[in-house]
Amino acid sequence: MGRRLYWASFALTPIVLLAEYVFHVNGTVLFMLAAVALTPLAFLIGEATENLAEHTGEGIGGFLNASFGNAPELIIGVLAIGDGLPNVVRGTIAGSVIGTALIVFGVAIAYGGGGKVNRQSLGRQIGVMAIAVCLFLIPSIPGWSGDADRHSLYLLTLPVAAVLLILYVATTTRNLRQHRASFQAAPSDKAWSLRAAVTALTVATVATAFVSEALVGSITEFGERLGLSQFFVAAVIVALVGNAAEHGGAIVTAHRGHAGLAAEISISSSSQVAVFVAPVIALLSGLVGRGLPLAFRPVEIAAMGGAAIAVALVILDGRAKRWEGGMLILGYAVVVVAFWIAGER
Prior knowledge:
The chain is an all-alpha fold and 345 residues long.
């Protein structure tokens, strides 16, 4: 019965599209429909990734989940730039980096009970994320005074974006080679075929992108009705919903005893937003609208750097413990309060 309801819930995706493009329902209703519709899609991505990991290993499986899961964020960022919403894009980037590192990883190990994690692989990814935060300071510090969207800051952003992409390619290639060399186990008899897992991931990701677009289009009206700032809505609500795939994937796999894969999903996603999604959006912004400087406020820089340090401490001994997950969740709650106090730029 539960399985039937799970598959039936995918009918929410076409309902959301009809509500947006045919019936043009109000923003609050559309937001709630889209948020609910993302849940089964997230769990499908998690289930498909777990089966894919049977063929590829945890490291590559986590990388693929992060890649598929971050596709909606990339689409949302480009669309928001085209709509002239740079603060929303920066808020979503910062919120995604922080949210996947703290709340996704924290909930996954707190709910799943923790377990052994690959300290070397995760440590490398956290190091890359920390480097990205340091590079963000180049356009950010001048942006703390004056217009944060001025063209001179975008010119400072371009070499930063190029360095981040080179760093992303180098570290991703090394991680994939390491995991491919160490993975020797054969998939279990119950695992989906490789083709079925990849197909499910692709379809679920495309559907997630469309539903996420509908949600972002309605989230401004939703936030106004709740009296929330545009930055808070972007950094907390949009970032959390946009990372629904990572939430579902990490929590499902951790609950099933795969703490290593859950860690790879969440930390890979966080690192990938910082060194791939952010620079790609910045580079594309010059083509779809006004160039986007990666100029973050001090509260955003501090929160991203603090998230990297917190996760580094958790994986230091090669094991993630349930109480450490609780501390990461608490840390995220502190960030949410800080973002609420910070308000608009």
